[in-house]
Hints:
The complex is a heterodimer of chains A (417) and B (170).
Chain A: H1 3-11, H2 16-19, E1 24-28, E2 40-46, E3 49-56, H3 64-68, H4 77-81, H5 88-103, H6 109-138, H7 142-162, H8 182-206, H9 210-216, H10 224-229, H11 235-240, H12 246-249, H13 270-301, H14 322-327, H15 329-339, E4 348-355, E5 360-367, E6 375-379, H16 381-386, H17 389-393, H18 398-407, H19 412-416
Antiparallel strand pairs in A: 1-2, 2-3, 4-5, 5-6
Helix pairs in contact in A: 5-6, 6-7, 6-13, 6-18, 7-8
Chain B: H1 3-14, E1 19-22, E2 28-32, H2 37-46, E3 54-62, E4 71-79, E5 84-92, E6 98-100, H3 109-120, E7 123-125
Amino acid sequence: MSDIQKHQRSHIQLAEESLAKQTTTLNLGPTHPATHGVFQNILEIDGEKVLEATPTIGYIHRAFEKIAERRPYYQITPLTDRLNYCSAPINNMGWHMTVEKLLGIKTPKRVDYLRVIIMELARIADHLICNSVVAVDTGALTGFTYVFQWRELIYEIYEEVCGSRLTTNIGRVGGFERNFSEVAFQKIHKFLDTFPKVMKEFETLLNRNRIFMERCLGAGPISAERALNYSFTGPNLRAAGVDYDVRVAQPYSSYEEFNFDIPVGTTGDVYDRYMVRNDEIWQSFSIVQQALDKITKLEKEDPAQKDIFYAPEADHFHLPAKQDVYTKMEALIFHFKMIMGEIDVLPGEVYHAVEGANGELGYYLISDGGRTPYRLHFRRPCFIYYQAYPEIIKDGLLSDAIITLSSLNVIAGELDA
Amino acid sequence: MTNEIVKQTLTDKFGDVLTNWEEPYGFLSFAAPAEMNLKVIQFLYDDETMQFRFLTDLTAVHYPDRKGEEMCIVYHLHNLVDNIRLRFKVYVPIEKPDVFTATQVFSGANWMERETYDNFGVNFVGHPNLIRILNVDEMDYFPMRKEYTLEDPTRTDKDDEMFGRGGTVA
């Protein structure tokens, strides 16, 4: 028997109780409509009660950390897109801010406000997906198809800014690749005008719906102490009662100037997570409105601000205008150097965290002074809180295990990197 | 509560055993010998003024040029009450990369240590289930170590001659 065959047989180890037909071993396989992503769980169930779960992950492991050691800094942005692909702009911005921290670049206010708009729109998109998918897993499909139209509008806004919808590669170190067009602002205004009515309708469908509440209340709870011990962050931790939010603890991109609340739950069950995300959508909405007002105010005070979309000190990461590249020598050399990735970065060691849609998304970057990082590690919130899943669903029902999985918002891309 | 108070309390308790005090970008960082990692983590957890009860991240870095201490295991700790972060490093030699596991203190260290073992081969002594987590189980090397290239040079199924490298093209 070859080594691989021998190894494969050693996987098929059923537990004693299972062989004695006391319990059932159920494979919630990697391809399953209810697990939103590719990850496998082998459940040991007794009737409807889950006794044990053994997760297997790594089906979408793409070795980002190793690839990042061979890529110039601007080529790592598309890798970060594919971490939490439902809210890719937040990952991109987090990476740019990490490099800016390493280089000591300070972004202008307008860039900060534009970044806040994009990040909060991404957070709304991600929470919309998670909440509507929790509803789908309980059987309510209408909410899902209804709010996705507004997720489409958010994608159209990204398309106006950077050209892509899902894996956005938005922004550059120090700002954005181009200024937001008039159409982009019109679409943002359209979103702000039409979204509240839609969200209220989505809430009337589910928030006080007796069937939904009885399904979700008490399903998959976790206490604050266990959540902190498992290094939970983000909406899952806030649903358990701890008000830790990176935007408040270590503000970045001018978040300290914005006025917003942090919704907090009590028991950490599915209903609490749903309600925390629901309230966070409203908070993000208010932040986008505030950011737009701040930008309008900035432009009224100083009309020249309208053209600022990147930090001047970061010109090593910003391609010069094409007219200059074709006519001036320095611009041509700059363009060539940047595209070929010959921009060296100062040596240093930095850890920067942003509040991703799932929690504290951290970037641990060690640079040795070359054109690529020496070591880049992604602190992925999904990976860290998914390890608590067996403990959360233990002694619960199988159907509760399914909705717990979708309410935890486990995104396979962030799980495996 | 500032970085200086943290450094003072740690130096009062452990003295010269802690080395490499640095503060890059405002983030206090220090190192300790490998045998002491649990003592330091437990002290930072239990002490009422320190209260570093949140493990943000656990990973490793491979420095092949530092003979005798090639593998650096990095713990990022966070005091949520006073909002202070800390980076704690432990260096081990590559021939015997043994580190005591932190899973008794932080349940979240479980998968973080499995990922570090999977990618770097660090042996966490006392870990309940130290097996590969992200890579295929049949893999018999540790891919994030610096000696392993990004692409597998022993691969025979990829024909690079059409792309201008490998084969008979110089």
